[in-house]
Amino acid sequence: MSLHFSNADAAIPLHVISEDNCETWLSGQGDAVRTWCAAHGFKGALGQTIALPDGAGAPGMALIGYGSDATRRRGRFHLAAGAVNLPEGHYRIASGIPTDQLASESLGWLLAAYRFHAYREGSHMKAQLVCPEDVNASEVEAIANAEALTRDLINTPASDMGPPDLENAARALADEFGARISVVAGGDLLEQNFPMIHTVGRAADRAPRLIDMAWGTDGPKITLVGKGVCFDTGGLNLKPGGSMGLMKKDMGGAAAVLGLARMIMATGQQIQLRVLIPAVENSVSSNAFRPQDILTSRKGLTVEINNTDAEGRLVLADALALADEGNPDMIISMATLTGAARVAVGPDLAPYYTDDETAAAALEDAAKSVADPVWRMPFHAPYEATIEPGISDLDNAPKGGFAGSITAALFLRRFVTQCPRYMHFDIYGWQPTAAPARPKGGVGQGTRALVKALHAMIGT
After folding, report:
1. Residue 388: strand, helix, or coil
2. Catalytic residue list contains 313
3. Is 73 a catalytic residue?
4. Which numeric CATH code is attached to 12-135?
């Protein structure tokens, strides 16, 4: 779906009122406004809305509660909390939003209008926002629609979002922005030395593939690598039914990097962009890879398989090796990789790993400014020994269960040896309960922070 601001010339003035400023604001209004607000119990609570009629009975002014400092600290996109409850119409923010929050709150309004209606008709958000004068409308719309792409891809079930469908989505994005794209699939993966991508995906009817998209001719070289496991049964280490239920979202890393790529291209950033997506299904069949198999990766490192359900790091490893060969200025991988990350930080934070202090500082600053929370995790060197099983170079699933997200990140880092900057995100990609601007379902994480921070992260 397309998310955009209203272009109406006439719009209903909207005042955003915090709890601590509500009485002061009301004291400056006429008797009719004070009486109407008192009758409807308007106190400025977060998400509370009220429309005040004009002389003809139509909405002449509207108020949205902005809560208190304490309630705002417990969430984000506060304007969106009330926008969904406004009556149909076009609205213009008249007062109450700090200037430095206008862009973020306007984005939240657009994101609140997102609906996934691919399989059934549903309701639409009635209230439309006229973009505030101090906000770059085209940039905010570009970011909102990139986020909508990520959500759509994750929300689509695996029956309609297998490796060929993910390829088609990437091709459509490349066509839209004039990017170059190539795909290596099936047996050609072995011929072109992507053995682990082939091994993980060979048991599925829909062939595994590596999607390679490039855009831009100027600026720093940045390569994005996204995990595209379109469905994960766990392989021969079969997941229980309860754990398999959300595995359509196991391509959330691929969805995220495609959304981030869309942000970069739509906003015209001066970047030489490359996007690599290993797209597979981890299925069960007579030719599925087995526990105790030892695989040789594109990098030449051997990997002992101690759990076929730790397949994401295998396909990412071959893609990261290819990314590293291209000598980019930075490689960023994004993946719904470990349950350990969810245990550590929950579903709302996007944990990331990097050894680059400049990149980390730039990302943290950007994340705060765009309401896209991230949390730095350590590449803890003493844990390196846990991913070295002795019989091969690496172990894909170290025993013990401790520090699962960290050991997975350390595993991936072994495949980036030339690029000076590497950052890995172990995201969830799913909103488990509805929140302002984030309905239950697929969600982008870390991408808005990244698109704002990219140039600062590499010092350009």
Report:
1. coil
2. yes
3. no
4. 3.40.220.10
